[in-house]
Amino acid sequence: MMEEFKQLEIYLFPIVMLLAIGMNNWKREERTQGDRIFGFLPFLIICMMGSDVTYHALQLYVHRFTVLYAGYLVYCFFLTAVPYAWLLYVNGKLSVRHNRRWTAAVCHVMTGTAIAVVLLTVIIPWSLSTEGWGVHAVSYSLNHGSLPAKLVSIAMYLIGLILTATAYPKEVTKEGQKETRYLLEAGVFSLVGGIVQSFAESWRTGGPFVALAVLFIYLNAQNRQITTDGLTGLNNRREFDAHLQRKIELCPEHEWGLLMIDVDDFKRINDELGHAVGDEALWHTADILRGVFGKDPVFLARYGGDEFAVLGDWFGQEQIEEAIARIQEGIDRFNKEGQLPLQLSMSIGYAFWHEAGRRGENLIQQADERMYEEKQKKKRMRA
User: CA 80 to CA 50: how far, in whole Å?
Assistant: First the structure.
């Protein structure tokens, strides 16, 4: 009995934590396959830890094989269901930015392998036993039956880790790199927990380590909600202000610049085509900026409404004009694709740190003024 109490003590905090995360996720409106799977993952981990305690209690106090076998199958089911869900979650998150459809087939193959392995650990010893469902099968299943399922689980965690590691060099944005790095670090937690419990079962690290991985991802998602604009996925105004202040404190003597970008005729787009098209225009604007700057050391943000900001280490007029030209090329490519029932147009203003007298408010004001001048110039040309 003391052994089961020790297991419950180990699992108590992770279970409470997972319940809180799971209930909070349940209320959210999920958007991607990965997000939907993440909503179920905490409850699957709770079931895995609960079935672990139940299975080992049955080993000590119940001697009917049918009951033991049922407990064994339930335990092995959740033991493989959790890494399967984790693998699907990783695949779902990576598929947003990469073509990873083939990995779903890998997930299903691994699950089928897990089921076959779990069943064979009982069927093989039973077929070799002259006593049918007898002592040999019971002894083998209870003492060694879950190890093959654990090894298959480790294989699934490892595949998820490999998929994430191979995706990281292909990320073209800082946001994508950051999210993939979090997946990679969380995957290491899961893999280490699975390996330790497989070969040192008394440590019971499988469930708690996966719970830590879920907590890691959850806290990252919460942080992203605080610092990220919900529509475009760029940094929000609050994060821009914080980053600008850090930039001022860390680089007071260096030259750097700011671009302020405004979507032309945005009010007309909302009035004539509807707010849904307006939202699409903002999302595509953010996507154009992500595509243009890629891995460049710049900071992208939605400043507010239809206005965007880009902070970068531009040293002079030539560099800033080159950056503006790249944005215009990105807009032209997008308009040729015809993804919206309109032609996107943007007005861009700029300012330099030293030119603004090394004051943050002056920097923003000068960039805004130049952006407004550009907008008025376009209106005069159309008149």
Answer: 14
Give tens-digit pLDDT for 245-272.
Answer: 998 888 888 889 999 999 998 999 998 8
What is this structure's pTM?
Answer: 0.69
- Answer CATH for 237-382 from 3.50.30.10, 3.30.70.270, 3.40.50.1820, 3.40.50.2300: 3.30.70.270
**What's the fold here for domain 2-227?**
Rhopdopsin 7-helix transmembrane proteins (1.20.1070)
Q: pLDDT tens for residues 171-200?
A: 766 677 778 888 888 989 889 988 887 777
Answer yes or no: same fold for 2-227 and 237-382. no
HEC-encoded secondary structure of 299-310: EEEEEECCEEEE
Q: Render pLDDT for 138-159 as a digit per residue (tens, 0 to 9).
A: 454 445 556 677 777 888 888 8
What's the chain's length in residues?
Answer: 383
Say how far apart CA 315 and CA 254 lie, in whole Å. 9
Task: Provide the b/e sequence for 171-197 (b: ≥16 CB within 10 Å).
Answer: bebbbbbebbebbbebbbbbbbbbbeb
Report the alpha-carbon distance of residue 22 to residue 181 in Å, rounded: 23
Q: Which of 328, 301, 304, 325 is CA-nearest to residue 312?
A: 301
Neighbours of 243 (CB within 10 A): 16
- What residue type is 171 in one-letter code? E
Name the DSSP class of 170: G
